[in-house]
Specification:
single chain; alpha+beta; 2 domains; 3-stranded mixed sheet; 21% strand; elongated
Amino acid sequence: MKCPYCGSKDTEVVETRASEDLDIIRRRRECLKCQKRFTTYERIENINLVVIKKDGKREQFDRDKLKNGIIRSCEKTKVSIEQIEKIVTEIERELRSADSVEVESKKIGQMVAGKLKKIDKVAYIRFSSVFKRFVDVEDFEKEVRRLIK
């Protein structure tokens, strides 16, 4: 593994830890040249998922794009980056365990909305406003009323 600080290829693993679900291995490494430490993550390379957008276009599933969308919805809320990472991991696992490698963006949006609704109502409303394409205040009002019930 190449050191991100000095570029040396002489590094050693100091600590290895598996995630709860054993999908990801976290390795703490130390550069033998500059003595700085850094973390790497190993994940099993899976087949590519294809997302079918609303307009019918297809694009490769992008974990970071999903994560960034959720992060935007969770700004200034109490939702932690660990909770967001857990949501993304759960959704990706569910998608990969499905029968098809193609999934509609609408389904992904519904999955995210369902998970956010359980942990933070504000993040849920923010996400839903984009996902469901709210066009006026009445759309927000209807969704908030449903949430309160």
